[in-house]
Amino acid sequence: MHEATLYEKLPGSRVRCNTCQWRCSISPDKFGVCRMYQNRNGVLYNMNYAQASSVAADPIEKKPLFHFFPDTLAFSLGGWGCNFHCQDCQNWQISCPETGEPWRDSQKVQPRAAIELAKRHQCRGIAWTYNEPSIWFEYTLDSAKLAKENNLYTVYVTNGYLTPEALDTIGPYLDAWRVDIKGFSDSFYRELAKVTHWRGILEVAKRAKAKWNMHVEVITNIIPTMNDDEQQLEGIANWIRDELGELTPWHVTRFYPHHHMRHLPPTPISTLEHAYDIGQKAGLKFIYAGNVPGHKSENTTCYSCGKLIVERFGYQTKVVGLEDSRCKFCGAELNFRTLGSKGGHHD
Ligand code: SF4
Known about the structure:
Helix content is 24%, strand content 24%.
């Protein structure tokens, strides 16, 4: 249990949590939408500080982040709970736990221990992933500060629903923002995740890049009949181009039926390829079809000279044509963060 960083006190011992865009107003003894922040006597507490549900040394490509320290390991930590309750959630056991304190039998990994474990497992950085990282915001903030002191990169794998002030609090210590843009219509976000004001996600993603110089990659899980229409896919691709830039990687991933969406079929490969074409037509230079091992779009090729830059198969990665963030053959800027690239770290 840890006092929350971003909240305000309201009359009658209520509090308002300002960690994510729900901005829950919480009565004494009650929880916010995520069920991980609780009002106790007018003080807001995060209940799952350091309570890890999952810990692994993962290839950074698994996040997926394809243009960020390729072929390195990220020490990956997941907590409990989520502020979205998506019907297609792949990690619902940890995101929507059925019991009040699901971490009872799990491990505590304090920030300093996470840093030590990352180093011991030869990881180049730390990623908060598997569930929504803002749901243990204080933990990720303390850990990110320590990670930067220890020269490790830091990654949020997020639904992007943090408030601008939460982003600005952790911004100085965060290097990469791997954000879901799940669809591009009010009705889709409402149906999938019961979220009505989803456009704040776009503003915060823009801010992560513009204000905090984070490396941003976008992912869209394409669900048959829900977000596979031309209008939404074009909306996402055009928005990425206009607001994040044409060099921003866009991952379009294959949906597999699970959780509350077992009635839908897996995404046809032709749909992913159609999304790929839409991205190309919008002018995006790096579109990757995900959850389809061996697909030709797994590799990175230079948009300017056509040479192979990074070869990938599943999570095996071979960097063959990169010099800092540029193509080593023709010099084109490819928007990679690597040890040598200019955007690699901010203090
Ligand atoms: S973090 Fe949880 S309690 Fe805070 S605003 Fe978001 S959903 Fe509500």
